[in-house]
Amino acid sequence: MKSKKIGKDLEDHINKAVSKIDKYLHDLIAIHPKKAELISYWMHDFTRMIDFEDKFKPTKNKRYKKGDVIKVNLGFNIGSEQGGLHYAVVLEKNNSQASPVITVAPLTSIDSSGNSNKGFRPGELNLGDELFQMLNKKCQSEIDRCNSCIEKIDGAYKTNPQNYKDIKRTFEEFSHHKKDVEKTLDEIRKMKTGSICMINQITTISKIRIYDPKTTRDVLHGIRFSDETLDLIDENIKKFFFKY
């Protein structure tokens, strides 16, 4: 009897929660459609992540080192908390590949107007254009490599049309990778004026939130800040969090 009551109470609670979310989102469409869209996307992603939680094996991801740049889904957050898909820098010096979590500092781009007099808030560190230069160089190199491989694959098909299935699969892999690289190249254009490390928003996240790189074949693999930049980040973390 008690279990039936718990089941009924839980079902009522779920129905009320779903009804409240549904009403809020539909009311929001009229006054802030973009916000309604972002929340809806996040709810979809959040549900997918929760559903994947029991199946997730962090050892299937590559190992991350201090200074690595990764892209993570921070979700839809409250107020001025950083959210959405964001580049971030890994802060842990010895994160185990088996660890399900990782500590990062979100990265954002400097005002696209290039107004250097705007200034930065406490806990925001100007990293210059190092990230843009690294990513731009790698993306251009990857696009050239993909174009070269696609050209060779096209030649292989003309020579050995009987291997159509294998050639088609390889062609699709390189074409997909090229699209990912071109998307990254388009994203980083706004970083040309520089990047900011959000020391004031350091956070520990589940590795399920990592979008790129998950493997050594992904676009962001090998993108890591220099030792000089990491020393600068460490110095500013000390100043921001501790008496110095």
From TrEMBL:
It comes from the Bacteria. Keywords: Toxin-antitoxin system. InterPro entries: PemK-like, Plasmid_toxin/cell-grow_inhib. GO terms for molecular function: DNA binding. Belongs to the PemK/MazF family. This is Toxin-antitoxin system, toxin component, MazF family.
